[in-house]
Task: structure prediction
Amino acid sequence: FLFMAGVNDPCSLSTLDSVRCSHFHLQVRADFNQKRLQGSVTHSARFVSSKPSEIILDTRGLDVSKVLLMNNSGDEVEVSFSLNNDKEGPLGIPLCIDPSNAYSKNLLSGDPEETFKIQVFYQTSPESVGIQWLEASQTDGKENPYLFTQFQAIHCRTAIPCQDSPSNKVTYSADIEVPKNLTALMSAIGTGDKPSSDNEYHCFSFSQKVPIPTYLVALVIGKLASKQVGPRTTIWTEPATLERAAYEFENTNEYLVESEKFISPYEWGKYDLLCLPGSFPYGGMENPCLTFVTPTLLAGDQSLTSVVCHEIAHSWTGNLVTNATWEHFWLNEGFTVFTERKIYAILNGEPDRHFDYILGNKDLGNAIRLFGEDHPFTALVPKLENIDPDEAFSSIPYEKGSQFLFHLETKVGVKAFEEFFRNWIVENRFKSVTTEHFQAFFKKTFGEEKFNEIDWNTWLYAPGFPPVDIMPLMDDSLAVEARNLASQWIEVDRSKADPPADDTSYCKLSAMQKVHFIDQLLNQSPSGLSQETLGQLNSLYHLNDVKNSEIRMSWLSLCLSSSDQSCFEHTVQFVSEQGRMKFVRPLYRALAKCGPEGYKLAKETFEKNKNYYHNIAAKMIQQDLDKIAQ
Result:
């Protein structure tokens, strides 16, 4: 029921075919001086096959000191294990547990369906990929350290020895000891807190009763403040950021209510938001009960809160119905993008939904061109044998996946597809699924004739662009407004025509229309604009002073593509104050391509900031710069 039998997860080393874990209890202390979590995890498990000779859990960079096996009577025995940290591969290190001592002492029979517990005593590494330890100087308050985790895709194993595969779902509970002046939160419901026995630490307890894949386990520790903004939503941030974040996300409940109407009742009890320090590498992370978001969303005018709509949609697509392996990631992200855009249409009208598809199509094209059209990672269902899924991460499963669902909707009709979509969620809630399961569900619903009208193989398994271009079906009225203004400026650049007399046309545009306007300048003039035109744009629209991170990103990209060295300082400032990969990776690449001076500055800036960036972001930026150097 909670795991997908017969699925081989190429990104996990654990013995999922012989033992399955269903719950764990985490008991750790956060040592900020050593930058380690120290304690134990106890897994509730059952045998799937008869008397397996070893039990393997996923780990990476963990120091394991002891392993116990326990039966249902509470009897326990210490067992031997092996963990060769000198032979770490892209998937980490297998923790190989030998249960023979439990068999020989008749503590366990090893019969299929027998339940037992595995307790592992361990500590994490300061270099754990999934845990970021921030010095006080790296926080807004500058007075207290901070910790946050990011376990998607396969980084829970860097913090907890576990079956780190989305094909298996678990419930969990936790007791987390933190320095007494700090607060701990998790992707779970808090069940209480109390001083630790030594009075130097405070213990926070949690329970997550809805089964989740391990990548959705999350922990944050810091000096946190909170403000309730809805019946189910509390905003958490550092104190200095609280009022800004509370204002920005005050309409969260509206997204939540409309999502429930579109799909089904919300299953997770509360929907809290945590606004993290700037080094958080993503726009958001859909951790149950506690969505993580980047402070780059704090535009001051609620113009970038669509990310929250995306993360809310994940409460159904991804968190309730989960990709069984990372090769089927589009079942999480393509479905979530499709859902969030449906919510846009409900709240703002169908043109808003279509405009977002137009914007997303640009991101899709950029990702495919970056990999190369024949690259296997551009397929909707890529092969990831012995590959860290982070290597394949891009907008492709998001945009190509959502375009595929839009295409299916056009084939069967909107009302029929929406009913099918809801049934897919409800019938598969709490489960992990594959693309083949989705295909079978489609065929069962619409019949073989309709099924055969779809070019499944090309959409799913062929690299490159989608086989069907859905852009001609889009209502482009919102895009046209931005394109027309861009065309005026292209004429200014090419023929020295007079620029617009004032900023009226620009100010009428929404934030994302402004992004599209700037992107269209580069699209219509791929080599960029003249320094004179860039100066006129900035003089009229004050683009160097803009606070909206999406507009800022597009403006700097245009300037760098135009080889405008006057933007170098602004670029360095932007990539130094936040670590969101959507922004920092392309900006470092663009800066590095601006001749020897640009490459030198990109390298120097990265060296200065790499300890501030999340480990995942630092790794990918380094790879980008190394590739350009070649």
DSSP finds 19 helices and 22 strands in the chain. Residues 175 and 205 are 4 Å apart (CA to CA).
